[in-house]
Amino acid sequence: METIATIKGQIVIPSGVRRKLGIKEGTHINIDVDEEAKKIILTPITDDYVQSLRGKYRGKGLLKALMAEKKREREL
């Protein structure tokens, strides 16, 4: 599938792709760049995507690290 960039660098995501991925008006899109492969990776931030992340970082101690960081910020 191919699309053309406008003078402002905007592109159109074809409607079939939007439907498949659940992209609607107001959907946030995460943009990553794979510099080695010279590719742009677009990931829609939909409810399904957020649900797929649940529990992914469980047991990593991230909450404790965040709480410690916030405590340090308050002390400054």
Low-confidence stretches: none
Order of neighbouring strands in the sheet with most strands: 1-2
- Structural class determined from secondary elements: alpha+beta
Which oligomerization state do the chains in this entry correspond to? single chain
Q: Overall 3D geometry?
A: elongated
The mean pLDDT is 88
Number of continuous helical runs: 3
Please state the CA-atom Rg, rounded to the nearest Å: 18 Å
- The proportion of residues forming helix, as a percent range, comes to 25-40%
What is the H/E order?
A: HEEHH
User: What profile does the largest beta sheet have?
Assistant: 2 strands, antiparallel
Strand content: 15-25%
Q: In total, how many beta strands? A: 2
The CA-CA distance between the termini, in Å, is: 52 Å
Quick summary:
The protein has a domain at 28-75. It contains 3 helices and 2 strands; from the N terminus they run αββαα. It is an alpha+beta fold and 76 residues long.
